[in-house]
Amino acid sequence: MATLDSIDRRLLAELQSEGRVTNVDLASRVGLTAPPCLRRVRALEEDGVIRGYHADLDASKLGFAITVFAMVSLRSQAEEDLKAFEDHIKTLPEVRECHMLNGEIDFILKIVSRDLQSFQEFLTSKLTPAPNVASVKTSLTIRTAKHEPGVPLDV
Prior knowledge:
Elements: H1 6-17, H2 23-30, H3 34-46, E1 66-74, H4 79-90, E2 95-100, E3 107-113, H5 116-127, E4 133-140
């Protein structure tokens, strides 16, 4: 875990909230001048605390009307089988997140699709026939009450 001072935490909070903020504005918000602010941000990037920057896209405005969570159980939990499943999932652009779980379910996937028919085709042609898949249970989201990327930062 990275050791962060209060300025680093404020930098991260600002960048997490608004990744396109200019270095000058960022420096002003956290009480630094631009050069040391840039050095700190670069150090956070080099340390891997900041992994990257991205735009938060509205899936529905891009034609992806549904989000589904799929709970996947595998026949084998041997490391090579887990890795093979993860490698397969990485090739599927519809799968936006993949998390390995403990307990009865091995993986939970967040999947976006244009409509139910597209999702059914994805499910039957790409997910359930994947090697080592024993079962897939799905839940279609009705609405999203909170979508907060990142982590809570105590500033």
